[in-house]
């Protein structure tokens, strides 16, 4: 569903991504793991069409983003690290606006919005303004929005930043439920080791390069340490961070 082939991106003399390649199949949950500055957000900006790579190709559901951006991006759902809801609109109005941008018929849009609000335990809050919601509930709204048009690929860009542990776990649970309903590909960017749990595929990114890609066991073997956490910290030169951060955040 998602194919990144030899993609590079530079900002002046800084090479943010250096010939990055990865593949995520339908029904796969792939965690993109890396510390701040690894290039995760740059990659997501390229995947979502906000910027154009200097080299390489990106395909969404087999459609080239560079040559057919409208078709490709219509198959994509995104929850960005920075929240992107209109705080002064209600939940329902935010969701209807997104449906309109995708050209969805109003009847279908309202049906899917209702289904999403029920699924995420927000059915009684559709008329509330977004600014009245907790951080965790705002993320739920963004996930409902990203799923309205039934994307083939879902991008989650550091979506748990600023959330407490129960909210992070709840968001992961919602993603798992969505994947059971539809065989989409999910690329979940994070710097939290704990969020690798249950991931079928892990891509380790550091300084714009892929250090390892595959199942958790394959990545552990590639990094040459007893655990993925130890392997990553050694490869990325973050042993001091590991020692001083028992929660497992790569920062």
From TrEMBL:
Report the residue ranges that make up the ABC transporter domain in this protein. Answer: 2-232
User: Which residues are listed as membrane-spanning?
Assistant: none
Ordered alphabetically, the record's keywords are: ATP-binding, Cell membrane, Membrane, Nodulation, Nucleotide-binding, Transport
Pfam families for this protein:
ABC_tran (PF00005)
Q: What InterPro entries does the entry give?
A: AAA+_ATPase, ABC_transporter-like_ATP-bd, ABC_transporter-like_CS, ABC_transporter_ATP-binding, ABC_transprt_ATP-bd_su_PQQ, P-loop_NTPase
The molecular function terms in GO held by this entry are: ATP binding
Does the entry feature the keyword Membrane, yes or no? yes
Q: Does the keyword Transport apply?
A: yes
| Record's signal peptide | none
Quote the NCBIfam families the UniProt record gives: PQQ_ABC_ATP (TIGR03864)
Query: Which protein family is named in the record?
Result: Belongs to the ABC transporter superfamily.
Record protein name field: ATP-binding cassette domain-containing protein
Report the source organism.
Thauera sedimentorum
């Amino acid at each position: 569903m998602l194919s990144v082939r030899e993609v590079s991106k530079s900002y002046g003399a800084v090479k943010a991504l250096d010939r990055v390649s990865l593949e995520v199949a339908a029904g796969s949950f792939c965690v993109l793991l890396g510390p701040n500055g690894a290039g995760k957000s740059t990659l997501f900006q390229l995947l979502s069409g906000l910027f154009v790579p200097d080299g390489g190709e990106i395909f969404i559901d087999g459609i080239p983003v560079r040559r057919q951006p409208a078709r490709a991006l219509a198959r994509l759902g995104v929850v960005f690290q920075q929240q992107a809801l209109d705080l002064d609109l209600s939940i329902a109005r935010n969701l209807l606006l997104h449906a309109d941008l995708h050209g969805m018929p109003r009847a279908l849009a309202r049906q899917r919005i209702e289904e999403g609000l029920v699924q995420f335990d927000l059915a009684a809050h559709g008329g509330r303004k977004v600014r009245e919601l907790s951080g965790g509930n705002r993320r739920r709204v963004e996930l409902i929005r990203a799923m309205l048009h039934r994307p083939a690929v879902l991008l989650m860009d550091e979506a748990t930043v600023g959330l407490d542990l129960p909210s992070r776990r709840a968001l992961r649970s919602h993603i798992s439920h969505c994947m059971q309903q539809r065989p989409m590909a999910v690329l979940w960017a994070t710097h939290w080791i704990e969020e690798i749990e249950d991931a079928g595929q892990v891509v380790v990114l550091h300084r714009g390069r892929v250090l390892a890609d595959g199942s958790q066991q394959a990545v552990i073997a590639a990094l040459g340490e007893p655990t993925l956490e130890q392997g990553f910290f050694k490869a990325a030169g973050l042993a001091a961070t590991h020692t001083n951060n028992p929660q497992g955040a790569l920062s």
